[in-house]
Amino acid sequence: MARFSPLALVAVTGFCFTNQVNAFAGLKNQAKHVSSLKMSSLPQTADDILWTPSWKSGERDEKMGLLGKYCEELNQVTRRKTRTVECGPIKFGSEHPLVRQTMATTNTADVNASMEQIMRCADKGFDMVRITVQGKREANACAQIREGLFKKGYDIPLCADMHFQPVIAQLVADAVEKIRINPGNFADGRKDFEEKVYESEEDYIKDRGYLTEAMLPLVEKCKKLNRAMRIGTNHGSLSSRVLSFYGDTPRGMVESALEFADICRSQDYHNFVFSMKASNPLVMVQSYRLLAAEQYRLGWDYPLHLGVTEAGEGEDGRMKSAVGIGTLLADGLGDTVRVSLTEDPEFEYEPCNRLCEIAESRRADLNPEAAARQKAVKTYIDTRDITAFSRRHGGLPEQREDDKTDVRGYLNRDGSVIATITPEMLTKENEQYLYQQLGFKTAVGMPFKDIATVDSVLLKNLPPSTDTAARTTLRRMIEVSTGVIVPAEELEKDPLANAVALMDLTDAIAKNGELPSGAVRLAVNVNGDEEESELAKIKELNPVMILLKTKEGISNLHAARRLFEYMNANDVDTSVIHHFTTDTSDSNELALQIGTRVGSLLTDGNGDGVLVEQVGQDKPFSVDFVRRTSFSLLQGCRMRNTKTEFVSCPSCGRTLFDLQETTAKITEATGHLPGVTVAVMGCIVNGPGEMADADFGYVGTLPGKVDLYYGKEIVRKSIPNEEAVDALVELIKEYDMWKEIPEEEEALIAA
């Protein structure tokens, strides 16, 4: 919303901008830990700085102790304690609400357009807006934008996004409240990917001289004006220096940020925050957790800015953001949030705000009901290793000699999707439509599995055996290795040959796992509140899968972690499917819910698939939509690829083409290529580095021109925009990663 400050009112009366800036700086309290030393006595060279002890040599472990906790509490959601960082009228830190922010997409030099967009963002509810600053022209424009906003009564803080330009960063610090620097290119210049070889850590450390030289003047300026700073490391744009020494790893991201923090701290400047962004939510989560753990070890308390970079658009972009951001907020980590979507910035507010609301509803230190749910989870010891990612792989169905059907397709090694269906969907009239909704291909009316077909279906109410059409539809799915999961009591009334009998764990124990007539396997429901003596029976029962749906009144996150801890400790390798129920009618809300609730477990490597069930009288989403959403979750969690993965930057003032329109065209042309990752980058800042592990890159370089990449190598230069999508398709074909869209899919797309 528009906010009036004393300074904004001064602006209205006609004071010049220089006086406004001076007044703004003068109104602010001095930062914490104000030095009693004169500037001349502070370190001025790399040799004078007290650097964080080396991690690679083991010196840090020796001096600071082993890496320990990464969050306040493992068994409940409590916000990590941080210092307060001031940024104009807002404050970051654990004593303050989560800050919602976005980034302008206008050309910063277009002052009026930029002001209009920033005001729309402020009116929407954002607390801060970041703007692009490529050079002196944009820095001067920032001063005009800031002055113009003050005159209109808007004191929303501005953050200058800086790459490659240390001198310009100093200039723009006069005009804006915050500077974002990227350690990967702030001092290293344009990223060249040339491999550097360091014979020793001493050789690596020698290069700190030019980092210090580039950074110190900006730190001095920010300290003098009490400006905030974000040390924003990106997975895809680590410097060639860091890449060569640490690799393209979360550890490299953290160490890169710590070097720049050491420079800030050497000047007794502490008004900064960190970020560890990546387009891969798993890398992003591991990097933030590792940084938080290092801060605990070092005794630091700087706030964290959370974001998944280049998340994309639509439900996929929201879900990927929810997986990464939601997971960390559930850890109690994070003080400001930006959801990066390939959409206009105003549309980022709803998912950003909703993720913050979900986080606040889970905090035990804010919400007594949340605290009670978390306390209700039975005691367990959390042994997760946040320094390395590993996925628990549940066992897959094994074929037996007496099996009358192939059960091996009931689950998938890379993650399974189970759909809920109803008897009404099984009629003769609906049969072909249902096959399509479940992702089957058909030949002469008979279904067969494809890459994005559900692995199994849950049918809570079984049509009677007298319903020949419904039973035939089920039989045909079973014949192509699709599991049909039916409650055991339904099968006992009217058997279905080769069905999977579903029982609550307690019932399965009471019946000693005995299956109803005709059933081929057992599946069990687990609610997360079982005693260990009950969980111990799972091994004997040997179910084909566990459906995990936590009971009301206990924390889903912590109850699920307890289950996986027990299973890992006792070598129970049964596959666990997260059974998620929802009554929302909003597709964006569904993406945020499932990404936050289920994604936060999958990012720990815990879970073998997902079952999304709509509950309530209204069920607004089609089976097809829920299926595609479920597969999107697995792909976003880097489990199962069923379509092209797009890494798409959210656009900013540097973007050299219409990013939303271009992304839509590329998606339409190449979206049917599972296992292929395409990066769409609006400018050279976000490519090639930000493309990270993409197979192909589409990068704006000059107005109206695009470069194409294979990996991190430019293979086509200066292609006109109107020819570039076709050229990308030809490039994919050249590297034998293309396949044609099947005719029936083309017909569906055309329809």
From TrEMBL:
Necessary cofactors: [4Fe-4S] cluster
MF annotations from Gene Ontology: 4 iron, 4 sulfur cluster binding; 4-hydroxy-3-methylbut-2-en-1-yl diphosphate synthase activity (ferredoxin); iron ion binding
Class of this enzyme: oxidoreductase
Catalytically driven reaction(s): (2E)-4-hydroxy-3-methylbut-2-enyl diphosphate + 2 oxidized [2Fe-2S]-[ferredoxin] + H2O = 2-C-methyl-D-erythritol 2,4-cyclic diphosphate + 2 reduced [2Fe-2S]-[ferredoxin] + H(+)
The keyword Iron is annotated on this UniProt entry: yes
Signal peptide span: 1-23
Keyword match Isomerase: no
Gene Ontology biological process terms in this record: isopentenyl diphosphate biosynthetic process, methylerythritol 4-phosphate pathway; terpenoid biosynthetic process
IspG TIM-barrel domain sequence ranges: 82-352
InterPro entries recorded: Dihydropteroate_synth-like_sf (IPR011005), IspG_atypical (IPR017178), IspG_bac-typ (IPR004588), IspG_C (IPR058579), IspG_TIM (IPR058578), NO2/SO3_Rdtase_4Fe4S_sf (IPR045854)
Annotated HAMAP family: IspG
Family, similarity comment: Belongs to the IspG family.
The protein's name: 4-hydroxy-3-methylbut-2-en-1-yl diphosphate synthase (ferredoxin), chloroplastic
